[in-house]
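Subject: for your reference before the review

Hello V.,

The reviewers asked for a structural picture of the protein, and I figured it would be easier to keep everything in one thread rather than splitting it across files. Below is the amino acid sequence we used in the manuscript, unchanged from the supplementary table.
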Amino acid sequence: MTAALVLAGMGVTTAADAARPDLRQMTCAQAQEMVRRHGAVVFTTGRHTYSMFVSNISYCDRNQRLFVQYGPTRDHPQCPVAYECKEPLFPHGLWD
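And here is what came back from the structure prediction:
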């Protein structure tokens, strides 16, 4: 009984991981197109890491800005896939 529960739990985790596209298996152009098409995509970026890539500011919180987000693709170790939403280091345009 315990082994069946463990295996069932492993299947759920595997299914969730499979649902998230792996950036490392895509070309740079494929990843960029996926973000353009969907607006926001959470990609697997490494063995134990993932990150959300967005196409525009509408996916960010009010105080956030867009910053280019790079990721490892099959054909480019630092592909400029799309953007990430982050709080600016100097919030009120002090250095703009």
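For the response letter, the relevant points are probably these. The chain has two helices and four strands. The first strand starts at residue 40 and ends at 46.

Happy to draft the paragraph if you're swamped.

O.
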